[in-house]
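Quick one: UPF0225 protein B7R22_07470 from Subtercola boreus, structure tokens please.
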Amino acid sequence: MTDARDTPGAAWPPPAPTERCPCLSGNPYGECCRPFHAGEQQAPTAERLMRSRYSAFAVGDAAYLLATWHPSTRPAAGDLELDPAQRWYRLDILDRTGGGMLGQTGTVEFVARFRLDAERGELHETSSFEKLDGKWYYLAG
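--- reply ---
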């Protein structure tokens, strides 16, 4: 396995493969979101995609965020700016509908907490996802 710090697209060093995954699944990064970020696997469910996207925000992987954004709503590459001062530290999944391995659409409600400078903030969102050609994409939220 390659070192997580070699994850393509990460703007700042992600966790080592044996460290806790930023999505707080309880699994190490190397067995959780890193295989998605590295392009070795595709998220099998809408929730796994949402968790991997949260982790991508946490490690500054704009390329992964854009690649998993639905083509109909994806911003231009230059329109997605990640602030290295913004540190994502907690993800809570509140609810999910659909989005299973056999589904075509799904939603995930979550709260993502972050620090920016000396301030704390949170993003409470219900994101929608759609599967195209067997691959889950973030649609809107």
